[in-house]
Write a structure and sequence with these properties.
The protein is an alpha/beta fold. It has six helices and seven strands. It has one domain.
Length: about 180
Amino acid sequence: MNYGEIKKFDIANGTGVRVSLFVSGCLNHCPGCFQQETWDFDYGKPWTSQTEDEILKALAPKYIDGLTVLGGDPFEISNQEAVAHLVARVREELPEKTIWMYTGYILDRDLLDGGRRHTPWTDTILNSLNVLVDGPFVEAKKDLSLLFCGSSNQRLIDVPASLKAQDIVLYDPTFFGNGQN
């Protein structure tokens, strides 16, 4: 896996102050995407264990609420192994931190068991998340008033509640505060 950028003080991609990792590679190619350069799987720098260590160190301060992984798309099949290792490590070493993820894929169609993007690592990723923002960016549904979404078709999903209910439970950032439930 390659990555394009690590933002160590991000307030745009989830609640609170976050560390955001922009992975490389996306097959969705949404018209109007704000990160078109990350569609290329070879864009940016190669992912290494040192990169993972750098992210864990950046997450350590108390004022950092959590990690956000976006891209590109973290659920591209070739990205999932590295992403699964990272989020499992964050969950183990820093369990108080929240983990958000953005994907152009649909949770209940593409990512759950039997979905076209489900791999041996998908469940590890999903079980580590607090919030998943799913769905492709749709330029005709672009809405700058939405919290943490670019278009009105995208959903903020409370992943632990959804997995428990076996149904989609939406996340309300105004109710839950920092995304830790």
